[in-house]
Write a structure and sequence with these properties.
Layout (H helix, E strand, L loop, with lengths): L16 H4 L8 E5 L6 E5 L6 E2 L2 E2 L10 H16 L5 H17 L18 H16 L7 H11 L2 E3 L4 E3 L33 H17 L4 H21 L8 H17 L7 H17 L1 H10 L23 H18 L6 H20 L2 H8 L7 H13 L7 H13 L4 H4 L6 E7 L2 E6 L3 E6 L4 E8 L12
Antiparallel strand pairs: 1-2, 3-4, 5-6, 7-8, 8-9, 9-10
């Protein structure tokens, strides 16, 4: 594709799909932001870092974990779509390791990242494993969808009923069948009718619903299986609507306002704008805030259970310390992906919830970009690639927004992050949760959204340009429930 094909004209560009996604020379050593551990790997060369004795693992500590393997699998498919290379053997290696571990664990994956116990299972990891199986089934690396069905049923069993709907747990240590102590300090509470062991981690609940909808959309199922998974997803959405409701406590507004100031101080302590002396002062101030405010904040939140703060910040959970600030971005990312999955496999009766989720994503993106939280994100790029989720969240939300323009501050934030971090698999070329297809062309990211809209993102010029033609979106309405 030449420069003339990407010339912008009043926010539009003119290029057909064959021109935009033309094949390029091989990217055998492509640097990629891996979604999971958020390490940066060069694939396929760094693939052995994701395995330890044949087990898919977290490259940071060697403990069993499937998220990075799923991200790497998507990245290899992205490279296949945009390069003169085939990575079937590498993808088969990942799939074989996943299936071998499943068999060794007696039919469901185990992790032990915190306790070293085989009874410790992390549902974010198993959801990624199930999505990897979906990819492998479509790629004919596994013959039958039965293994996906059984794995998803096992995954969904880690759940509990709330006063309304079903909540999908973060890990097996929250489940009533596990007697292991929780490795983090958590406050027992029964918010929304939950058990005292349930931390009510929002991001994992969202991820499970999205994974279930994705299986419903892409995998052939019997009527009984389809009914079971549809009811599970619908019940999860009902619980989501319950917890995302606005707090009715008269104390919520003053608490939220004061907490906004404390969070702003915490995030500014991570900024890079001051010299060394200024940064030391900020860090000392944050240390004081962390010791004095956040333990008290944890107790207040357990008595004022809510996730959506008035300034756009979204809390990760109800019971834990509340200092895992990066999960605001994870929540926004997961909400944006849920909107896509529900649009592609819609369930009736949740229109108000989806509108609420859209508003939360918009407010959450604005918070992440327009406040000192952005300083926190930029500083964190020195340690990991997690801020790439901001770019993916923007792409996912642009796919479901009615407006066919990108707010300028979203475009600028996307481009700033991308100048600091290599692309994720979605931006590189493949992730069916977020995009239809994509490619990186010099200083431009070319992306076709799940809605079918084609974007040219000028990273140097900090602009997101919309094509004047929308291509048909990939949907499976024929599989949707009546």
């Amino acid at each position: 594709m030449n420069d003339c094909q990407l010339m912008a004209s009043e926010g539009n560009f003119h290029a057909g799909p064959d021109d935009v996604f033309a094949t390029t020379p091989a990217k055998s050593g492509a640097r990629i932001s891996i979604v999971g551990s958020f390490t940066t790997l060069s694939l396929p060369g760094d693939l052995p870092r994701l395995m330890s004795n044949g087990v898919l693992c977290d490259p940071r500590n060697g403990s069993p974990m499937e998220m990075d393997a799923y991200s790497a699998y998507l990245a290899l498919k992205a490279l296949e779509k945009t390069a003169y290379s085939q990575y079937l053997s590498e993808r088969s290696l990942i799939c074989d390791a996943l299936l071998s571990r499943l068999s060794d664990c007696g039919g469901f994956w185990r992790h032990g990242a915190w306790t070293k116990s085989e009874t410790e299972i992390h549902m974010r990891f198993t959801a990624a494993a199930i999505r990897l199986l979906v990819e492998a089934f479509e790629d004919r690396l596994i013959a039958s969808p039965g293994i996906i069905v059984e794995s998803l049923k096992r995954h969904l069993a880690y759940s509990e009923r709330l006063t309304q709907g079903t909540w999908f747990l973060h890990d097996s240590l929250e489940h009533s069948s596990t007697d292991l102590p929780y490795p983090q300090k958590r406050l027992s509470n029964t918010a929304f009718g939950s058990s005292q062991r349930n931390c009510l981690a929002l991001n994992t609940h969202l991820d499970t619903i999205s994974t279930t909808l994705n299986v419903l959309q892409r995998i052939p199922l019997s009527m009984a299986e389809r009914g079971f998974f549809t009811r599970a997803a619908a019940s999860g959405l009902t619980a989501l609507e319950l917890v995302l409701g606005r707090s009715r406590s008269r104390f919520w507004r003053p608490f939220s306002a004061f907490d906004r100031l404390m969070r702003a101080m915490a995030f500014r302590s991570n900024g890079l704008r001051d010299g060394p002396a200024g940064q030391r002062i900020r860090r000392k101030a944050y240390g004081l805030v962390r010791r004095a405010w956040f333990p008290l904040r944890q107790h207040i939140r357990s008595r004022l259970p809510a996730f959506a703060f008035l300034d756009g910040y979204i809390e990760r959970d109800i019971a834990l310390a509340g200092t895992s600030f990066e999960y605001h971005l994870v929540n926004v990312y997961d909400l944006a992906r849920l909107l896509i999955q529900h649009r592609e496999y819609p369930l009736p009766g949740h229109a108000a919830l989806l509108r609420r989720c859209g508003l939360l994503v918009d407010a959450g993106l604005d918070y992440a970009i327009r406040t000192s939280y952005f300083d926190f994100l930029i500083a964190s790029t020195r340690e990991n690639a997690r801020p790439i989720l901001l770019c993916e969240a923007i792409l996912a939300r642009l796919s479901t927004r009615e407006e066919k323009t990108a707010p300028p501050h979203w475009a600028r934030a996307y481009c700033i992050i991308r100048q600091l971090l290599p692309p994720s698999p979605a931006i590189l070329g493949y992730d069916p949760f977020t995009v239809m297809e994509a490619d990186v062309r010099g200083e431009r990211d070319i992306v076709r959204l799940r809605s079918g809209t084609l974007l040219s993102i000028d990273r140097a010029g900090e602009r997101i340009l919309f094509a004047d033609k929308t291509f048909p979106a990939t949907t499976t309405t024929n599989l949707s429930p009546a």
